[in-house]
Write a structure and sequence with these properties.
The protein is built from three helices and no strands. With about 70 residues, it is an all-alpha fold.
C-alpha cells in the first residue's frame, strides 16, 4: 500500500491497522452526479440520431463524436 499511495498508508498507520478495512476507502469520483450528468449529456446529444435506422444512427453518432 505504501507504493500505491503514501498518504493512505500514513492514515492507516495512525489508526489501528488491524481494524482497518479497504471497504471504507472509495476509489474514483466521490460524487455520483458526474457519471449521471455525462450520461444525460450523451443521450441529449444523440437525440436526432435515435429516430434513424441502426447503421445511419451509428454513423451520425460517430460524426457527432468527432
Amino acid at each position: 500500500m505504501f507504493k500505491y499511495d503514501t498518504e493512505v498508508h500514513e492514515d492507516v498507520v495512525k489508526t489501528n491497522p488491524k481494524s482497518w478495512c479497504r471497504a471504507f476507502y472509495k476509489v474514483g469520483p466521490c460524487v455520483e452526479d458526474v457519471e449521471n450528468n455525462s450520461t444525460e449529456s450523451f443521450n441529449n446529444s444523440i437525440g436526432k440520431a435515435r429516430d434513424k435506422p441502426y447503421v445511419p444512427m451509428l454513423e451520425t453518432i460517430a460524426r457527432l463524436a468527432m
